[in-house]
């Protein structure tokens, strides 16, 4: 260490730089993971919706009104869920999402529906749970 104490200062700056780099890298990796999950899940949804000539480009916006989500659930389950509300108001969108959630709750139960929202769901019910949570948020 020099007599003026500069090496201690340099060490603290270097330590802070490393911390900032690590924090930035972790954030970038998290964003990349989210992007990949979103892209993969969008393709998975579209593999079903193609049967009805529907398509999802962004799961966060395209499923928010609940209409495509209801249709997706009908396709996968083979059951009719009724006609979605086509209104434009928030209350109409919430009604469609609630109908989706109610259907999922009766089919897979709340424990399975909301049990795995970490991004590691291996079953369709876990994936549906995440979509419903996301759409219900909006």
From TrEMBL:
Keywords: Actin-binding, Repeat. GO terms for molecular function: actin binding. Pfam families: CH. The keyword Repeat applies. SMART domains: CH (SM00033). Gene3D superfamilies: Calponin-like domain (1.10.418.10). InterPro entries: Actinin_actin-bd_CS, CH_dom, CH_dom_sf. Signal peptide: none annotated. Residues 35-138 form the Calponin-homology (CH) domain. PROSITE patterns: ACTININ_1, CH. The keyword Repeat applies. This is Spectrin beta chain, non-erythrocytic 1. It comes from Amphibalanus amphitrite.
């Amino acid at each position: 260490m020099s007599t003026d104490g500069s090496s201690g200062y340099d060490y603290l700056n270097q330590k802070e730089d490393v911390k900032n780099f690590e924090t930035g890298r972790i954030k970038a990796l998290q964003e990349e993971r989210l992007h990949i999950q979103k892209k993969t899940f969008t393709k998975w949804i579209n593999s079903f919706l193609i049967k009805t000539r529907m398509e999802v480009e962004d799961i966060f916006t395209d499923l928010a009104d609940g209409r495509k989500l209801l249709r997706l659930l009908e396709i996968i389950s083979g059951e009719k869920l009724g006609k979605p509300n086509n209104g434009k108001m928030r209350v109409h969108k919430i009604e469609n999402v609630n109908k989706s959630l109610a259907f999922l709750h009766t089919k897979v139960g709340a424990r399975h529906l909301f049990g795995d929202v970490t991004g590691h769901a291996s079953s369709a019910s876990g994936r549906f749970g995440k979509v419903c949570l996301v759409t219900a948020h909006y």
